[in-house]
Amino acid sequence: MKRIIQLMFIFIIGLSVTGCSTFNATSLTPDWFSKDEEEKVLGPEGSLEKATQLTKDGYYEEAREVLEKVEAESDSREYSTLAKIRIADTYYDDELYAEAAIEYASFLDIQSYSKYAAYAQYKLAMSYFKRIKTIDVSYHWARLAIQEFEVLRRNYPRNPYMDITESRIKMCRRVLAEYEFYVGKFYFEKGSYAAAIGRFNNMLENYPESKSESEALYYLGMSYDNSGQKFKAIEYFNALVEKFPTNELSVKARELIVSIDSQTPRLIIAE
Q: pTM (2 decimals)?
C-alpha cells in the first residue's frame, strides 16, 4: 500500500510539471482526488502547508477541517500539537476572538510545557486585548487581557513577546483607569456622591499617573464637598493644586478652597 501511495505521489508531481491536469486554487493535488486521498498523499506536513495556504487565502473553516484531521489522525505528536495550535490561529486570524481564546486555553491546559506554550499564552491574552473597543464596554476584556499577559510574564519570563507585553499591559491599565473615571463621573453627575467617591478613589489608588488623574482629584474633591465632607474636599483640592499647579482645574480648586475656608475656619489653603 505504501508503495502504491509513493507511486501516486510521483505521478502527481509529473502531472504538475507537464500541466496535464487541472488543480484547485487551494489544493496541492488534482481535482479528481477526494479529500481523504489528497491528505494521504500529502501527509501531515503537506496538510499543514495546505492549511497555511487556505488561511492566507481566507478559507478559515476549510483550513480548520484539514488541521482537525491532522490533529486527530497523525501518528506524530509534533504534527498533532502544531495542528492544535494552528486551529486556534485560524479563529484568531478570522477575528473570532472568543473561539480563539477557548482554543488557546484548551491547548495550554494540556500543553503548558510545550515549545508553543508561550506563543499560545500570548495569543490568549491578545484574544482578549483585541476585543477592547470603547471605554464603556472594554473593562471586562482589559482585565482578562492583563490577567493573561501577567501569566505570560510570570510563567514564561524568557518569551519573545516581553517588550510588547509590557506595552499591552500599560494600555490595558489605561483602559481600566479611564473606565473607573467614566463610571465615577457618571455617578457624580447623577448625584450619587458616595458611589462617585468610591470609583475616583479606586482609580487614584490602583491606577496612579493616569492621564485623567487631575480630573479625578477635582471631581473627588467636588464629591466630598457636595456630600458635606468639607475637610476631605480641601484635602483633594490641595492635592490637585500641588501636583498640577498650572492645570485649569487647579484654578477652580483654589477658588473652591477659598470658598469652603470662608465657611469653615482653620482649613489649610494650598499656596
A: 0.76
CA–CA distance, 150 with 10 (Å, rounded to integer): 51
User: Cβ distance 185 to 216 under 8 Å?
Assistant: no
As given in the structure block, the three cell numbers for residue 20 are 496535464
238 is written with which cell numbers? Answer: 490641595
pLDDT (tens digit, 9 = 90+) per residue, 118-133?
999 999 999 999 999 8
User: How far apart, in whole angstroms, are the C-alpha atoms of residue 92 and residue 60?
Assistant: 10
Q: Name the β-bridge partners of 23.
A: 30
Contact status, residue 51 vs residue 74, Cβ threshold 8 Å:
no
Q: In this predicted model, what pLDDT tens digit does every residue of 256-265 receive, in sequence order?
A: 999 998 876 5
Give me the residue spans of the domains in the chain. Answer: 1-6+18-94, 108-191, 212-271
